[in-house]
Amino acid sequence: MPGNTFGQLFRVTTAGESHGPGNVCIVDGVPPGLALSVDDLKPDLARRRPGQSKVTTQRQEADDPEILSGVFEGKTTGTSIAILIRNQDQRSRDYSDIKDKYRPGHADYTFDAKYGFRDYRGGGRSSARETTVRVAAGAIAKKLLHERHGINIVGYVKQVGELVADITAPELVTLEQVESNIVRCPDPAMAEKMIALIEQMRRERDSIGGAGEIVASHVPPGWGEPVFDKLKADLGKAMFSLPAVMGVEYGAGFGVVTARGSTNNDTFVPASQSEVKTGSANIATDPNRHGGMLGGISSGMPIIMRCAVKPTSSIPQEKPTVDRDGYPTTIATMGRHDPCLLPRFIPMAEAMMAIVLADHMLRHEAQCGTK
Amino acid sequence: MPGNTFGQLFRVTTAGESHGPGNVCIVDGVPPGLALSVDDLKPDLARRRPGQSKVTTQRQEADDPEILSGVFEGKTTGTSIAILIRNQDQRSRDYSDIKDKYRPGHADYTFDAKYGFRDYRGGGRSSARETTVRVAAGAIAKKLLHERHGINIVGYVKQVGELVADITAPELVTLEQVESNIVRCPDPAMAEKMIALIEQMRRERDSIGGAGEIVASHVPPGWGEPVFDKLKADLGKAMFSLPAVMGVEYGAGFGVVTARGSTNNDTFVPASQSEVKTGSANIATDPNRHGGMLGGISSGMPIIMRCAVKPTSSIPQEKPTVDRDGYPTTIATMGRHDPCLLPRFIPMAEAMMAIVLADHMLRHEAQCGTK
Amino acid sequence: MPGNTFGQLFRVTTAGESHGPGNVCIVDGVPPGLALSVDDLKPDLARRRPGQSKVTTQRQEADDPEILSGVFEGKTTGTSIAILIRNQDQRSRDYSDIKDKYRPGHADYTFDAKYGFRDYRGGGRSSARETTVRVAAGAIAKKLLHERHGINIVGYVKQVGELVADITAPELVTLEQVESNIVRCPDPAMAEKMIALIEQMRRERDSIGGAGEIVASHVPPGWGEPVFDKLKADLGKAMFSLPAVMGVEYGAGFGVVTARGSTNNDTFVPASQSEVKTGSANIATDPNRHGGMLGGISSGMPIIMRCAVKPTSSIPQEKPTVDRDGYPTTIATMGRHDPCLLPRFIPMAEAMMAIVLADHMLRHEAQCGTK
Amino acid sequence: MPGNTFGQLFRVTTAGESHGPGNVCIVDGVPPGLALSVDDLKPDLARRRPGQSKVTTQRQEADDPEILSGVFEGKTTGTSIAILIRNQDQRSRDYSDIKDKYRPGHADYTFDAKYGFRDYRGGGRSSARETTVRVAAGAIAKKLLHERHGINIVGYVKQVGELVADITAPELVTLEQVESNIVRCPDPAMAEKMIALIEQMRRERDSIGGAGEIVASHVPPGWGEPVFDKLKADLGKAMFSLPAVMGVEYGAGFGVVTARGSTNNDTFVPASQSEVKTGSANIATDPNRHGGMLGGISSGMPIIMRCAVKPTSSIPQEKPTVDRDGYPTTIATMGRHDPCLLPRFIPMAEAMMAIVLADHMLRHEAQCGTK
After folding, report:
1. What span, in angstroms and rounded, lies between the C-alpha atoms of A339 and C117?
2. Phi, psi (degrees; rounded to nearest 5) at C300
């Protein structure tokens, strides 16, 4: 099956390239009667948009979405919703310097190896530009989850290089805190340092990696399927499907490698004794090292994931590589690139978490009912 | 869609519980003409088997597979292959002490929350016993990958607690090295220490976490799909679908968080200049921080993944928990459990990697041909 | 995707051949809490069983199902249900006379063309023996549909050769009427004639075609999806997936070819004025030429389908054919075959209708709720 | 899973309504390197277009397709292809006379029953307008099938009312013959009569049903999957997914009901002795009552299907119906409608057959190779 579709019941199919006419998604399975307009899509698109601040790429795209179907009189009809975002900043130029060379860290070589040729005007289908429509689809999922269950999904930058934000209660971080600075880190002091580091990277014609943390609160217990479609598995796939993600963990994550069972197991407690508000469930855990999923099924505790995002591969330094025939050459990836991907990564990761949760909400309720 | 099926073209569907009659898988999509018998399944089942050594659970299961369909005159026919592994060690006992209590770290609570009740005789469907048939299906995938492309998939224990194996060239580790000791660590000195640590855990009625590393060599460049079904995404899902996995990374993994683009990008080089043998491709990278996948598509370099596995939740220590009504109580998970999951985790993770690669081999060749 | 799985949310995966160890199905997605035991499966298996009467094949199979998973303390757990039916009547014999010849009307040639070789001991995977487990899965679907919505699914033989049963109100036909004679025709006078015709066919070493009609009553309005997964489309696929089905129609069917819109359109009427009881809906149609589906979505009126079933291909007459190399030869399909497929076709078709309806029930309720 | 996606490997997802901004499809899985432009899509769109002749609706739509992605330098890239066809003839008018009434034969009532409300400006998602993008997707499939295997797919009007075309060799009918008259019937004498009958229907404010026959030539033997995804099953679903189709048959179809095995079975013969050209296979049948599929797998003989299409439900006669509350009222469906659906049905049915065959080509070759 081709790989441009995600989800079973809340199902997103996408198309589009960085330098083509635009990007499209078809969101299928949205329940009827949800109030929806382009205004619901724009805020997250603005958070993902290039050119939004000095720490992102200076390339400008308006990213105006058009809803082509599935909404009537301001409400979803239950039929498939198509969203089109036209590309605007398609500078026409001479690509002869790069069309036969492989940019390090990019998919140029692997696309050629797969398909025999590629759209060499940029990343083509491998460009992060395809995430525009993911973010639009995610905005629908977020709205659905919030209306049905009061679920909030908030992501933030946890780390840039060696700079680690101090976040004691991930589930209490608010969108307002995240958006209070351009690097999307809710630790204001660390945010200042991160911004400075990113600006330094740009000056040094380099880039820097980082980690994002994404949290979903008020997810009811019981979502996710045993065995293959564990909630952690589908969330893991969703995060790894985003460009530049090299690692994913939830809860204590890689910290469990050195842990013992006697201290790693969270204790079940009456919800009334828990410091974490868990929605409707009457049982909670103390603490939440399990990251909100046990046996791959939601426990009612906040779902907490972290993603490792590599430094932008495109850097304006002359570097060795090979051409299509395998002969050594050099390349410099000029152009306007993000010196750190993290600030714009956050809305993408939130969108993917929202899509997975909306899908599993419908899947759970299809089989087990809405109680 | 229910969650007991994995893969698109090489497709595995499973059923079975820890204390029911047995576990079954149906493997669909296997090309016709592959020589296959139960003898191809037994070696990996023996590596996964409980009771295999002093560092695993002492529970005994023979795990004899029966092929019920899809093989005729010693070859696969192209139709669906059903494999049945009956459960043998189903000790009948009184479950009244645990049926209404939630074991910490287990899926007891989340299953009850999802389905309204559960098979309380053990983990039921959440038990790692379901992985027997995954390992059987994985053995078919491994054989197919090896016959078609000479692909080898080898996993090993990289870390137990603070003990880290010293492995300089993951792609050169052999199955023989891995199987040379009972902890499945190809660093013999560290293997000794790991075994001692695991035995200490059993004496202390505790358990310990660890990390496994899984490597696939000779994967041709071009496998994997852009966007959602990136090879890293499907591999990530596969690993997270295994019990106890809390984190997954590939290549440099979480190490990219502190890296700069100028040093993180691997350099493309002619394959003849690479120290790593890459099968048929004439282009390689130096080094392999990208872990064999760029843009989610295989690069021809070895695919290297690491999984964080939590310490066994079942430990024979009295611990606080709650009952089904949310009232505090205590529980001790007696029985015969693995003090460390890693030695038996390795064949499970290899199986899942093999299933993903077999699926993507067929997917790639369906669209792009076999060249 | 391989073709041994059917359904999205109520999902059936099967394996098994006519002369192998047995047939297996895994039924995934069944809601938890449904009372279920092998006794729920046996009645329909007995209706499908070979050797049940003088008008069917005299081959004997006990068709005893074993439930391997997914049921605990007499109730479905919500996890995947595996059912195994072992083959018993596997006469070992010399196949050299048929292994290299193609039986007319069978899949011998097409399987060889597809896979390069085939299980020549019988139909292998193309044998109608694979429908045993479909019937078992259908029995679960029937029970679910009846418990949730009071839906009844009843099929019967409408025609054998030129003999057409006189059925004025398909939705009023009962299982008891159908089972009152061995040919499964609720018109007793015509049933006698059909039985005589089928016996004549056996004497003449020939076989005869026929038509089955399958009716589902009390299906709520609103099931089915617009566009591709119309209820009529999935029901059509389900029926065509059964061996020997050459045509499918619903409602007025091929009768619409000569009809005018002014008389073909059913009139909407208040349900209170309708002679057909339609469950909970307050709107009905008069008459029901549309066969219970409009725009591919159930209307609340009875769903009525008809299938054309070809005469058994296996007849004990010497006939010309070719061998694997394309050279002319002759073949006679000896053995014990049904002189008319219809009596045993009915439970198969009911099962497929039930599986489709159970799947669309869950799909509809997942998106639109249970109201 | 929502129902706006069709196919596994050649996969079409659609969105759009009759009175919204437009219709979109995303075609995923197309092999790379296929020459493609909008000029490949336009001929079949023109054949489906409203307003094309006096026997179709007089509504005018230009149906200009825009390819938004997946094509670079005139060739498919292997990534998802999005096609947008904007609606032009969206007359704004007062819908108060119809928004609360149910048009007989339409999906107004069933959409309301499913979703709780509907887009009342026309058929919305149930309008045949959604088939524009199916036809565009089908044009890609046709081109792929022809380039790879020389497959031709030709449909024609077989019957309108009582008027039956005389076609002795369906596989020899050419596109030119079909397009030589406006009713798309390759029997010129009967075509004249059909045109006269359809004009009479328009004058009488009525509509008439008919049957279309669709033929695929040069399909290699071996396509289709055993059991559920038989080629006949997927083709049957495809045809039933089209609006107004009430019956589908292939080969001898419903004619088998009265047939005996001794005469119904086709005889296998060396291809050199067959009057039908069958591409590369060296085995043919005489005659072709089996319609090109045995055991649901292509035999190499022409695939021949027939669809029963009901008379247009929309007729400008005042007729009784009910309103949303179930109260009796009357309605006349004014507007510009086809007095017979058949002439425009043909390209839709060809498109669906092409999509199914392209999908099964890839599925077969994925598992069994291209030989």
Report:
1. 58
2. 95, -20
Could you give the maximum distance between any two Cα atoms of chain D, in Å? 67
Name which of B91-95, B307-311, C147-151, D272-276 the model is least confident about. B91-95
Q: Chain D: nearest CA to C227, how far in angstroms?
A: 6
Question: Does the distance separating the beta carbons of D28 and A13 come in below 8 Å?
Answer: yes
Does the model's pTM come out above 0.90? yes
Q: Architecture of domain C5-368 in CATH? A: 4-Layer Sandwich (3.60)
Q: How is residue D303 written in tokens?
A: 């695939």
The alpha-helical segments, DSSP class H, found in chain A are 38-48, 108-115, 131-149, 175-179, 188-203, 231-240, 261-264, 342-368
Q: Which residue of A has its CA nearest to D112?
A: A77
pLDDT digits (tens, 9 = 90+) for A44-93: 999 999 999 999 988 888 899 999 999 999 999 999 999 999 998 666 67
Question: Is A278's pLDDT higher than 80?
Answer: no
Write out pLDDT tens, residues C81-102.
Answer: 999 999 986 666 778 778 899 9
Decide if A206 contacts A212 (C-beta within 8 A).
Answer: no
pLDDT of residue B281: 78
Contacts of B81 in chain C (CB under 8 A): 15
Among partner residues C110, C115, C253, which is closest to D246 by beta-carbon distance?
C253
What phi and psi values does residue C44 have, to the nearest 5 degrees?
Answer: -70, -35
Could you tell me which residues are beta bridge partners of residue D156?
Answer: D213
Question: Closest chain D residue to C13 measured between Cα atoms?
Answer: D228
D368 and C115 in contact (C-beta within 8 Å)? yes
Q: Determine the 3-state secondary structure of B321 from DSSP.
A: strand
**Residues of chain B positioned with their CB less than 8 A from the CB of A342:** none
pLDDT at C290 exceeding the cut of 60:
yes
Write down the domain spans for chain D.
5-368
Nearest CA in chain A to B14: A227
CA distance C82 to C136: 10
Q: Which of B228, B243, B255 faces A4 most closely, judged by CB atoms? A: B228
Confidence category of residue B89, pLDDT binned at 50, 70, 90: low
Contacts of B200 by beta carbon, 8 Å cutoff, 6+ apart: none
More confident residue, A371 or B108: B108
CA-nearest of C164, C345, C362 to C242 is C345
DSSP string of C100-169, one letter each residue: TB--TTSSHHHHHHHHSS--TTSSGGGSGGGHHHHHHHHHHHHHHHHHHH--EEEEEEEEETTEE---S-
DSSP assignment of B251-264 equals: TTGGGGGG-BHHHH
Q: In this structure, are strands D245-250 and D303-309 parallel, antiparallel, or unpaired?
A: antiparallel
* A316 C-beta neighbours (distance < 10 Å), count: 14
What is the reported pLDDT for A280? 65
Q: Mind telling me how many Å the CA of C254 is from chain A's nearest CA?
A: 30
**Whole-Å CA distances, A58 to A63, A184, D46:** 14, 17, 44
Dump the DSSP string for C282-337: SEEEES-TTTTEETTEE-SSPEEEEEEEPPPS--SS-EEEEBTTS-EEEE---S--
Chain C residues whose beta carbon lies within 8 Å of the beta carbon of residue A78: 367-368
- Written as one letter, the residue type at D232 is K
pLDDT band at C17 (very low <50, low <70, confident <90, very high): very high
Q: Which CATH class is domain B9-368?
A: alpha beta
Q: Is the pLDDT of residue B97 over 60?
A: yes
Across the interface, whether the CB atoms of D294 and C267 are under 8 A apart is answered: no
Residue D98: which of D124, D117, D120 has the closest Cα?
D120
Q: Which residues of chain A make contact with D14, given a CB cutoff of 8 A? A: 26, 80
The whole-number pLDDT of residue B277 equals 66
Picking from D43, D17, D21, D15, the residue whose alpha carbon sits closest to that of residue D88 is D21
Contact yes or no for C125 and D227 at CB 8 A: yes
Number of Cα atoms under 13 Å in the Cβ half of residue C311: 30
